[in-house]
């Protein structure tokens, strides 16, 4: 992976790293260690955007993204190493941050703008199952800002049953089908906008630098070299 990150710095115009990859990129490039959280940062959170940043143009002042992580990199340490914090909140910390590395703009998301509407539900069910199987000691917290009151009530009732019947078979009663109908993708517009801005940045840079090397071009060159040996 470190080889890929080094290659991307030299041979791409921009790169996106999400969640664990974002932590790996900051560690590899700048030695920024991540910090363990007391509980999983889990749910959909509101973030405030930095003014006038190219990636947040056309977004509303409040941006929503899902997060699912046990660790974080912190704003002060990122800024000390030259990163620009793009979106953040007091509740969830840094959301997105960016830095030019050699020839490429690296955009990092601690969250998951690419998630579908059911992804957090499936992760929550997975964590509940791990508790029932004895793979984790504590019952998982509900993802924040994700379920409506009716869904939260159903899941609280299931939690009560699961704590008194801690065995794998109990997961069969998890009210997934009832909860799915209540889910809404509240971050879709924010995700579409930030990725659209990123693609526009790539398009503009490509027009300015028509000789850049793509991953596909690089693979073709490597295959030709191998065939010639």
Describe this structure in words.
- With 229 residues, the protein is α+β, with helices and mostly antiparallel strands.
- The protein has 8 helices and 6 strands; from the N terminus they run H-E-H-E-E-H-E-E-E-H-H-H-H-H.
- A 6-stranded mixed β-sheet has the order 1-6-5-4-2-3, with helices on both faces.
SSE run: HEHEEHEEEHHHHH
Query: Which homologous superfamily in CATH is the superfamily of the largest domain?
Result: Class I glutamine amidotransferase (GATase) domain
Q: In this structure, how is the largest beta sheet organized? A: 6 strands, mixed
Mean pLDDT: 91
Low-pLDDT windows of residues: none
Given the structure, what is the number of helices? 8
With strands numbered from the N-terminus, the spatial order across the biggest sheet is: 1-6-5-4-2-3
> Helices and strands: which structural class?
alpha+beta
Q: In one word, what is the shape?
A: elongated
CATH architecture of the largest domain: 3-Layer(aba) Sandwich
Q: Quick one: how many beta strands? A: 6
CATH topology heading of the largest domain: Rossmann fold
Radius of gyration: 21 Å
Please give the domain count: 2
């Amino acid at each position: 992976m470190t080889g890929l990150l080094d290659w991307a710095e030299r041979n791409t115009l921009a790169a996106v790293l999400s969640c664990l990859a974002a932590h790996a990129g900051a560690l590899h490039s700048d030695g920024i260690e991540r910090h363990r959280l007391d509980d999983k940062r889990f749910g959909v959170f509101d973030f405030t955007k930095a003014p006038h940043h190219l990636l947040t143009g056309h977004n509303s002042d409040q941006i929503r993204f899902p997060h699912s992580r046990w660790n974080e990199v912190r704003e002060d340490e990122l800024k000390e190493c030259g990163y620009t914090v793009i979106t953040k909140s007091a509740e969830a910390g840094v959301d997105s941050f960016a830095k030019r590395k050699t020839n490429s703009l690296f955009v990092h998301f601690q969250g998951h703008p690419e998630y579908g509407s059911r992804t957090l539900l499936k992760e929550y069910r997975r964590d509940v199952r791990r508790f029932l199987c004895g793979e984790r000691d504590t019952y998982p917290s509900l993802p924040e800002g994700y379920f409506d009151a009716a869904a939260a009530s159903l899941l609280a009732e299931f939690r009560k049953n699961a704590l008194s019947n801690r065995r794998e078979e109990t997961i069969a009663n998890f009210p997934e089908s009832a909860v799915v109908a209540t889910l809404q993708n509240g971050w879709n517009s924010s995700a579409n906008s930030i990725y659209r801005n990123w693609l526009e940045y790539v398009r503009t840079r490509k027009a300015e630098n028509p000789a850049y090397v793509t991953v596909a071009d690089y693979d073709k060159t490597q295959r030709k070299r191998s065939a010639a040996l």
